[in-house]
Amino acid sequence: xxxLTQTIAFFILIFAFTTSLGAQNRYSYQMLVGQQRDGGxxxxxxxxxxxxxxxTRVIILHRLNHSYLTFRRQVIQNPENIQTRFTSDVxxxxxxxxxxSDPVPREPYLYRETWSGSVTVTEFSETTxxxxxxxxxxxxxxxxxxxxxLPVIQINGREVTGARAEALRGGRAATQMAPLRGRRAARExxxxxxxxxxxxxxxxxxxxxxxxxxxxxxNDTLTVRNHGRNVNFGEDFDLLISYPSAMQADSLELRVxxxxxxxxxxxxxxxxxxxxxxxxxxxxxxGSPQFISDGSLIKLDFAEDTRLKHHRxxxxxxxxxxxxxxxxxxxxxxxxxxxxxxxxxxxxxxDMPVSLLNLDVAIDMMRFIVDPDELRQVRRSNLDxxxxxxxxxxxxxxxxxxxxxxxxxxxxxxxxxYAFENFSTPTTVGFESDQGxxxxxxxxxEEVDRRLPAGGTTTEVxxxxxxxxxxxxxxxxxxxxxxxxxx
Length: 487
Known about the structure:
By secondary structure, this protein is of the alpha+beta class. It has helices at residues 3-18, 29-32, 162-169, 173-195, 359-364, 372-379, 383-395, 407-423, 434-442, and strands at 41-49, 55-65, 72-77, 82-98, 111-121, 133-143, 145-155, 158-159, 198-201, 211-217, 230-232, 237-244, 251-260, 271-278, 285-286, 288-293, 298-303, 308-315, 324-333, 336-348, 447-451, 459-464, 467-473, 480-486. The chain has three domains: 1-36 and 354-413, no CATH class; 56-199, no CATH class; 206-350, Immunoglobulin-like, CATH 2.60.40.1930.
């Protein structure tokens, strides 16, 4: 099975509300641009035993991409030169309310903890770089109970509001889909709003529990993943499983279920896709986990504590589709299994090419490599037939069929994105231009020679191992026409 299957999971999710719009409102590539981008903010919450019975340590991990932040410009004059810096000062206040409070509580908070930090860069391009981020950890100890957690973020002294605040609180997506899916979806959106921020803080005073922490790449150092509840699609990762030293267990079992396009702890209708056993007599680490952040990475250390021990296990995520997963840990003792811990995560293709957000668009973009008559027939097919054709087309061309990630398919659709971003002009969409079409089929040239003759027409020569393409400018806005492919 190829990466294709995982792509279909996204297609089905999108079709759940796009098909109701009618054929006249079908998505185009341009409509999808930007939809694959996340809000740029990620939160994850981990629970560990507290210092007193009945109390629980709540560890909140956050990651704020530079694209989410706002930066202020600073000019520093030195005797030798003038330096420019861009700084973002951030604070996040986590307020815990009674779980019965309104989504916008009127009563005072029960517990509050604030984190603050800052990031400074020297280049303006770094202020919008989605690969750069500010990370941090907030820890507080509170009684085990059910709460409503509402974080409030301030950047450069101003509270973040609107959609950017909703991205932090995780309450936006269901509301946006409601108008597209009718009354049922509207009701679901209202119910989701009521549940927003509801957090159960478990009592870990017992001797029968297990907690799971998402770590970085397999066999990496003890670095916490810190991407919310997400792991990178197609990449293996490690789980740190923490449990009491006093727990009576002959062995531990990790079970992983595919729950499709939604996070769910209901695994009855889900397919179990992975299982692994752990010998509790062999421990990798012991002690109370300490989460230490340097502003970018969050690493684990262990303080002396005989109550806890920890195992690290690699999850073969390269075999899994990009979907939601629910993991459960079972304690086996005298032939009986007891569930002692669970958590969910999403295997997510963060840089998914734009076309793959919609099946019709993905198929339409295959016009550069598929016979027009065949493609015309596919477009007339129903949804199931389209999915089957699309899956079979790419699965037979998967260079690594033993993995979910189809490198060839990803490369093809990335070329379409590149063409759109680099060859679009006021009059032509990039992938429809001559340069865009050549790039999509042949990939990046080995050499680009741009010639600017005095009083003549600008010419570009693209050189490939066995072929050259010559383009001439037809306007002053980046339009080029193919005039001569040569062997």
